[in-house]
Amino acid sequence: MTMPTAVALEDAKVAFRLGDGRVYTAVEKAHLAVAQGEFVAIVGPTGCGKSTLLNVAAGLLKPAAGSVKIFERPLAGLNREAGYLFQADALFPWKTALDNVAIGLEIKGTPRAEALPLAQKWLTSVGLGAFANRYPHMLSGGQRKRVALAQVLIRDPKILLMDEPFGPLDAQTRQVMGNLLLELWNADRKAVLFVTHDLEEAIALADRVVIMSAGPSSRIIGDWRVSLPRPRDIFEVRLDKEFHALHREIWSVLKDEVMKGYAQSTHAAEAV
Amino acid sequence: MSRPTLFALQVLVAVVCIVLWQVLSTVPVFGKILLPPFFFSNPLDVFSQIVKWFASGVIWKHLGITLAESILAFVIGSLGGVLVGFWFARQPLVAAVFDPYVKMVNALPRVVLAPIFALWLGLGIWSKVALGVTLVFFIVFFNVYQGVKEVSRTVLDNGRMLGMSERQLMQHVYWPSALSWMFSSLHTSVGFAVVGAVVGEYLGSAAGLGYLIQQAEGVFDVAGVFAGMFVLSAFVILIDYGVTLVERRLLVWRPTASDGRG
User: Fold this and answer.
1) Fewest 10 Å CB contacts: which of A43, A113, A228, B160?
2) Residues of chain A with pLDDT under 50
């Protein structure tokens, strides 16, 4: 790859101090590089620290050791090149859909009169042109995700960080959202780091799938290239032979970790 | 149940109560009047007293004074509550230092402050305003404090990731969140502003609804006391209705504006 590296985690270690003074190591020596224009999915069992890793890339968390580089420069403070799509609802409940999208520009100092038509354009491109004056509570879960996507994309970040963004949605809505994401991403191919626990979703969306081991002290244990042709349709791509072969191959590794993660979580519960 | 039926039933309750009151206070049952007029008056006398007040116009002056005191108490108490609530929520050290004193003052029954306020501020409207302020302040203060402290972590992180500065976070996240908590306690705080005004008047004043009731009581004019109570309830219901209108406008973004009262 000759493309510059958008996000580089170099031996990043994440640890938390627990209430009783012990140190809990969430992620051990993670080494990961996302090239510009590349879509990378991180998959791992529940509690493996994949969201933690994403927060490190966002600058919301500081690594205990190792370094984070954004476009070859060490990251200090928040990652200003990145847009972050949260798993939980992160829209401002007191702003309408339109204002929620426009705020991304207004923060940068764009006058409101200029920001509003652009926000309307973005709402239309996520399919919510007619819902501009709705407040978040009047929208469905899927619609709120669309607004959140527009809110992040209107700022045109060079990097997209996504933390199980479609996790709370039902299966059909997830697929529709996946296709929408691919369509929007295809327009200018930002670097994407996409965290999910759904392997199928990861293969269908990404250029590369990275697998993490069960926590604590989880590591990156696998890295597969997905060479399915683009543009993809999430509904179609799941029927592809190559998709199945890859799914089987990755799942054979992931399955053990899922079982381990499950055993550990029940064990931990018994210890308490 | 349809609205007209409900309304008819609601009116029926009032009619039954008033008729019972009228009958029991004028017609002897087994040779005995169950509600002696000296203690209970009767609806006709009460009604004619109310009509007399409105016809002669004396009531307007008293209503105006009570309204002015309530509004002043509400505005001053809310402003103070918002400012101090914000300050404490953003400065945990200050909050921790003042915590026992806040609890102590809030635990004090505010009525005992009335004589002190009368002493300091005289018998005019300001001693009543002060009493109302001590009631309103704490409600608004606790709500704003809570509102600023309980801003959703995700919404806050989202604001940061969107590039908000501390000042912008204040404007777009903390402030709306605190205001929504304050507005959700609007009914309570407005109600307490009126309570402060009326109790203050009752304990010593020269005008206002509380004064009117206290005067009637002083001469054993039970009809006057009841008339004052009815005018007061109507007054509070009207104000409460106004608050509901304001609330509906300000909290449109809330899922259910009415059941989020703190």
Assistant:
1) A113
2) 1, 272
